[in-house]
Amino acid sequence: MARYWMAEGLDEEAQDFVRNSMEEHRIRTFFANLLAPSPFHWHFQQSYEALVSEYYLPGISGLLNGIEHSLRATVATLDGNDLDGDIGTTLSNRLLLEAHNKGMEIDILRMPGESDLVTGVVSRKVNVGLVMLRHDICHGNFRRFRRDVDGIEYFTPEYLLPTAITLLDISYKWAVHLNEFLFRHDLKHLSEDHGNIPDNPLFSRL
Question: pTM of the full predicted structure?
Answer without folding.
Answer: 0.89
